[in-house]
Every structure is written in structure tokens, then in C-alpha cells.
Amino acid sequence: MSLLHHLANSSPGRRATYAVPSKTAMNPLSPKKLLLTKWTAVKPIAKQKHFLVSKVIVPEPPNEKIEFVEIEAVYTKKVSLIAWRDLTNSELWIQGWQ
Fold first, then answer.
1. CA-to-CA distance for 76 and 93, rounded, in angstroms?
2. Which domain holds residue 51?
């Protein structure tokens, strides 16, 4: 059934709901594009929730895959090194500041 057909035949007082894919499903993360992206820790780290990717660590030699990024706590400016793939774990990180 097409969306137009569904909308035309739905009850006037009833709203249709649709599932929207998550951002990460639509736009998979690329380590090269993480610089200056904003992240929220699901569980605060040293009482900090909001972080910014401040540096993408380019490996030696440069033709190797990127494995790590530096994240900076927005409030305290403390820097930590993490595996960039950890940012894809929704139990640890949420993209953007929540």
C-alpha cells in the first residue's frame, strides 16, 4: 500500500506513526569525519557527560587504519584517548549533546 493511499484512507482523528531509522543506521561513522563531532556519554565519565572529538590519531605509517581519537570534556577540558569504534556503541555514547 502506498503512503498516499494509506493517508487518504486513514481516519481523520487518527495519526499514523512510522518508524524512522536511527542516525547511525543512515550515516555510518567514518573515523576521518569525526574531528570536532559532539558526543554525550551514556554514563558520566569523571562527572562529565559532554565531549568533543578534539583529535583523530593518524597511525604511523599513515596508510594504516585509524584506530584512536582524543575526546575532550567540554567543561573541564580533560583529554582522553579512546578507540573511535567505541563511539558506535549506543550503550556508551550518544551522538550530539543530550
1. 18
2. 27-95
* Segment 13-40, tens digit of pLDDT: 555 444 444 444 556 888 989 999 999 9
* Distance of alpha carbon 45 from the chain centroid: 17
DSSP secondary structure letter of residue 65:
P
Locus of grid cell 590519531: 57
Residue of 46, 40, 50, 53 whose CA lies nearest to 95: 40
Q: Which residues contact 69 (CB under 8 A, 6 or more apart)?
A: 31, 34, 53, 55, 56, 57, 81, 82, 84, 87
- Total count of domains within the chain: 1
Does residue 39 sit within a domain? yes
Residue 70 β-bridge partners = 55, 81
| Residue 70 in domain | yes
48 located within any domain = yes
Whether residue 3 is contained in a domain is answered as no
Residues listed for the chain:
98
